[in-house]
Amino acid sequence: MMTFNDKIELRVLGITRNQVQSNAYALLLEQVGGPYRIPIVVGTPEAQSIAMRMENIITPRPLTHDLFTSIFHAFGVVLDYVYIHDFNDGVFSAVMHLSSSDAETDLDVRTSDAVAIAIRTGAPIFTTERVMLATGYVSRQDDGRDEGDTLSLEDMSVERLQQAIARCVEREDYEQAAHIQKIIASKLAGCQTATKTDSSTATD
Questions:
Q1: Is residue 203 one of the residues assigned to a domain?
Q2: Of the four listed, 55, 74, 114, 188, which is most buried by Cβ atoms within 10 Å?
């Protein structure tokens, strides 16, 4: 079973359309009790499924995520939580932790599918601090530029890059936001490597 190294709860904030890339939407997740938001690019079917459930729209026939939820209920399976545990090469990785009266397991699943099912079952959604810092941004009320914006993206601090992601999301420029997310992930990976090197050469 996958274990939590750290656990940050998220909630679904909404779905927005990508005006730059056709047939693409952004799922916005918000840190519970914190300032961070995480945008995740999703396809049209997943976006529609999530949006329809959030707006309490009932379809004449069940959607795929409704079907999965019905199967869980029919066989006594509980979705305990969704865990977005990794972000690599622009792709989020998630698992659904399922349990029944006599078993439990983690299923690898697309993040958008996991969220679509979670909002139907009321299951909590969690992520790690590393994923949140690598992909999230701090929501800001203004869209002003500051002196840090004159730097190239690679030269900006992680905090500045997170602010840049916030501006991209407000402009619905999710392609640029994803590019900045990769730069942040690279910076964080470099910091972790440097920390490990320092630890291996340190003496008491």
A1: no
A2: 114
